[in-house]
């Protein structure tokens, strides 16, 4: 009996230690900071593009009229709590006010990208990104909005401006010379991005299993032969059905196994390489460049801070020398 | 952890650096663990709660305790990228006329030749695609689009056609040389069919705008109480 009790106690002790290691090990904020730069750029670009049709999409009576928005969110239904999702745009009718909010949001996303008051603008960026996405859902949203929102949301949890930021330059100018400390919250933010990416790929794979054409291999043909998606004509692949079948099966296998094979260090590079290949294919051939890139930004969460630093630090050092001169150390 | 005389990397945490004694206090860890477990559970719950999920999952997803958290954070959706199967594309074709019946503007969206950059094109593609899955709300959405077109381009009336573009199957594209059947092209006319058609006039636009200004909007009625019935074309018709 005592052996069972000891075994149970050891099991729960080990589980708690593993849980602690996973979530609460301080980590260098280099990866989170790099994600901030790229996600900030993506948020800025995504919302800059809204500018061309701002009032048509976010005005009260445009492509997505407010009455339909309210109807979709259950405001008119009896016996049901309406949606808890909220967007400032649902209360704004004046074009001037909508533009004012839009400009503030763009400034915020730009500041996030360059890392000026990073933590504060990360909070505001998450608020704005969700606010835009909620207003155009359903109607004009797609996967890009989901990933933008999740990246902005997790960036605000950690010290995303610790590196590659104006904040960092400012600290160096004021004489800070020490290395950037490791942070538990940087780890929490990265872990949440990692787990969210796992959920996304897992359900994308499970969803495909419900279809027929991902089993027969025809799904790739249906994707590249959709004229509304096509940005690069690769229908010549139709003469090589075995390549299309292989791509279809690889896609499903990759998505289903991603949540498991992305963690071991021996399989991780292969999974990341496949992600790069798959998302570049989608970006180039199906015209979803922003979506392909934002998925790769999410995948960056699986790249170690040391690797990120090897790539980013030389660039950051040159920039710091250019801006600060001798004070860059 | 360094070994074999190798220099350790200060940025890389050793595999077992954190024990339960390092970092935040136990109370904070427990509180944070509960919050993190709740969040991760929500991440996996909502994609599972699609139209085909069990009663248990559906009712969990509908429980206000989860909804108040997931909906404001935009976590209440699935991830069905190109699943279960890649489907047809959709187009909105419009014909705007003035009071004399003269053409003011004819066009379609999404149109890669006129809508750029690509992200903007994709937004219009979503506008065209998403009504397809809206069931009885289809004509409600199309009427909204029609009114927006009148606001944008002027004119007295507009006719909007909702067109599905089925994807050519692989074997139809290849053809069959032995049986002397030529392959078809991706834009073959037989692949296009009109799913619905709506008409709106300037008076409809003014009524919608006036209702908004006076704050007396009524709940939109998908069954056609407040709007003209949709011109459903069952099975579609070739363009």
From TrEMBL, chain A:
Q: Which residues form a coiled coil?
A: none
Give the transmembrane ranges: 30-50, 96-114, 121-141, 147-164, 184-204, 242-263, 275-302
Please give an example of a GO cellular component term from this record.
endomembrane system
On whether Glycoprotein is a keyword of this UniProt record, the answer is no
- Just give the chief location class: membrane
Alphabetized UniProt keyword annotations: Membrane, Transmembrane, Transmembrane helix
Q: What is this protein called?
A: HTTM domain-containing protein
**Species name:** Aeoliella straminimaris
Automatic annotation (TrEMBL), chain B:
Keywords linked to the UniProt accession: Membrane, Transmembrane, Transmembrane helix
Q: Where are the transmembrane segments?
A: 26-49
Region of interest called Disordered, as start-end residue ranges on this chain: 1-22, 196-239
Lineage top rank: taxon:
Bacteria
Record's protein name: Uncharacterized protein
Q: Which organism is it from?
A: Aeoliella straminimaris
Q: What is the lineage of its organism?
A: Bacteria, Pseudomonadati, Planctomycetota, Planctomycetia, Pirellulales
């Amino acid at each position: 009996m005592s052996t069972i009790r000891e075994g149970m106690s050891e099991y729960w002790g080990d589980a708690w230690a593993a849980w602690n290691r996973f979530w609460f090990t301080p980590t260098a904020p280099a990866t989170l900071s790099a994600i901030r730069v790229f996600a900030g750029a993506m948020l800025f670009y995504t919302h800059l593009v809204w500018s061309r049709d701002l009032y048509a999409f976010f005005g009260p009576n445009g492509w997505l009229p407010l009455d339909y928005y309210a109807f979709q969110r259950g405001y008119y239904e009896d016996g049901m709590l309406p949606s808890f999702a909220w967007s400032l745009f649902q209360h704004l009718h004046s074009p001037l006010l909508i533009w004012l909010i839009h400009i503030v949001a763009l400034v915020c996303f730009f500041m996030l990208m360059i890392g000026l008051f990073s933590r504060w603008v990360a909070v505001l960026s998450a608020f704005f990104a969700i606010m835009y996405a909620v207003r155009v859902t359903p109607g004009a949203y797609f996967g890009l909005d989901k990933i933008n929102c999740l990246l902005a949301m997790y960036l605000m949890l950690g010290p995303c401006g610790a590196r590659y930021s104006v904040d960092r330059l400012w600290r160096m100018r004021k004489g800070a010379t020490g290395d950037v400390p490791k942070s538990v919250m940087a780890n929490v933010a990265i872990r949440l991005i990692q787990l969210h990416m796992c959920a996304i790929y897992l359900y994308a794979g499970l969803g495909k299993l419900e279809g027929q054409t991902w089993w027969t291999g025809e799904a790739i043909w249906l994707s590249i032969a959709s004229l509304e998606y096509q940005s690069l004509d690769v229908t010549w692949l139709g003469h090589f059905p075995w390549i299309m079948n292989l791509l279809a099966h690889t896609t499903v296998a990759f998505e289903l196994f991603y949540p498991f094979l992305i963690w071991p260090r021996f399989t991780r590079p292969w999974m990341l390489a496949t992600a790069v290949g798959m998302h570049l294919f989608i970006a180039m051939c199906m015209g979803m460049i922003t979506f392909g890139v934002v998925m790769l930004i999410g995948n960056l969460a699986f790249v170690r801070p040391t690797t990120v630093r090897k790539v980013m630090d030389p660039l950051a050092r040159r920039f710091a020398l250019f801006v600060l001169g001798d004070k860059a150390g | 952890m360094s070994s074999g005389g190798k220099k350790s990397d200060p940025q890389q945490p050793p595999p077992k650096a954190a024990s339960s004694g390092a970092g935040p206090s136990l109370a904070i860890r427990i509180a944070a663990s509960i919050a993190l477990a709740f969040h991760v559970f929500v991440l996996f719950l909502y994609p599972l709660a699609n139209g085909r999920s069990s009663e248990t999952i559906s009712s969990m997803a509908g429980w206000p305790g989860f909804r108040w958290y997931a909906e404001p954070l935009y976590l209440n959706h699935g991830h069905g990228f190109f699943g279960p199967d890649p489907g047809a594309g959709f187009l909105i074709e419009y014909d705007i006329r003035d009071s004399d019946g003269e053409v003011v503007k004819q066009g379609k969206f999404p149109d890669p030749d006129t809508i750029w950059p690509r992200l903007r094109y994709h937004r219009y593609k979503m506008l065209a695609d998403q009504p397809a899955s809206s069931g009885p709300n289809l004509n409600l959405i199309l009427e909204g689009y029609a009114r927006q077109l009148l606001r944008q381009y002027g004119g007295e009336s507009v006719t909007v056609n909702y067109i599905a573009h089925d994807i050519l199957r692989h074997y139809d594209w290849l053809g069959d040389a032995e049986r002397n059947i030529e392959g078809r092209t991706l834009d073959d006319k037989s692949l296009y069919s009109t799913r619905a058609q709506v008409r709106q006039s300037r008076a409809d636009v003014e009524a919608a705008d006036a209702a908004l200004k006076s704050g007396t909007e009524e709940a939109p009625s998908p069954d056609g109480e407040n709007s003209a019935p949709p011109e459903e074309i069952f099975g579609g018709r070739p363009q």
